[in-house]
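User: Could you go from structure to sequence for me? I need the amino acid at each position, not a summary. Structure tokens:
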């Protein structure tokens, strides 16, 4: 999942990419942000894409820094949200070896740490931590590996969406899939995407200098996972992980 991928998808972002804000019917993420929002403070939206979270952030913070690896996504966001005068945009690769130092009172990072590369993820976590002031808040949302495996198990057991007709990969593709899954990397729409375990997140964030306050599920409808979910399939629902953490 490189810059090239995100630039290519930008013109069709709305139809291609899962909208966390729209699908979080519980409103838990917005509520978590409101708990530390402050008209005198700054927030950085890391991996802001086309700016879905800007209407949530702009009215409740003094300033919003919106960063993304995709210049095209940023251009779309900037054009769409011209009515806000407290947003600044910057094209930043959170997996770059070095970034210019900057500090904010708080940060959100919603489904942006997705790269299959461990090295790039390590840099992403390191820079994310460096961007937040001591005592500052973070709301992080990432795909759940538990949820992804749960969906696979359900699909295979009950042949959801004709899962049994899926052709198992062979050769190099099979080998790379086995290597990937051991690291929590599994495909979303044929793109290798990092998924996280709850315990893994807690450890990674603690080592990156955060105090983890809460990790909870952001639940979605089964129709976000399957074209034809069985009518009896209700709970548990598929989910992402949301972490609320404070910078130590
Ligand atoms: C799935 S989208 C999520 C967008 C947005 N946070 C939301 O919830 O609507 C992931 C975004 O992360 C950005 N991204 C991925 N890797 C990045 C990196 N290394 N540095 C900065 N942004 C990155 C992508 O360009 C993309 O816009």
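Assistant: Here is the amino acid at each position, in order:
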């Amino acid at each position: 999942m490189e810059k090239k991928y995100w630039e290519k998808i930008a013109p069709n972002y709305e139809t291609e990419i899962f909208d966390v804000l729209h699908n979080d019917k519980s409103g838990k993420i917005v509520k978590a942000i409101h708990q530390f929002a402050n008209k005198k403070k700054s927030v950085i939206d890391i991996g802001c894409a086309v700016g879905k979270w800007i209407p949530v952030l702009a009215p409740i913070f003094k300033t919003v820094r919106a960063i993304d690896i995709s210049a095209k996504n940023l251009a779309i966001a900037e054009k769409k949200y011209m009515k806000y005068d407290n947003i600044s945009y910057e094209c930043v690769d959170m997996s770059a070896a070095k970034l210019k130092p900057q500090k904010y009172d708080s940060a959100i990072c919603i489904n942006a740490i997705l790269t299959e590369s461990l090295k790039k993820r390590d840099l992403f976590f390191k820079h994310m931590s460096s961007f937040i002031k001591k005592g500052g808040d973070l709301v992080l949302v990432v795909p759940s590996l538990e949820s992804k495996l749960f969906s696979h198990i359900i699909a295979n057991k009950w042949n959801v969406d004709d899962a049994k007709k899926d052709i198992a990969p062979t050769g190099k593709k099979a080998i790379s899939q086995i290597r990937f899954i051991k690291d929590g990397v599994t495909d979303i729409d044929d793109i290798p995407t990092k998924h996280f375990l709850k315990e893994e997140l807690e450890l990674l964030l603690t080592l990156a200098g955060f105090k983890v306050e809460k990790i909870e599920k952001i639940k979605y409808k089964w129709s976000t996972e399957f074209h034809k979910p069985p009518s009896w399939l209700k709970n548990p629902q598929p989910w992402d992980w949301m972490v609320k953490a404070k910078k130590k």
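One structural detail worth keeping in mind: The mean pLDDT is 96.
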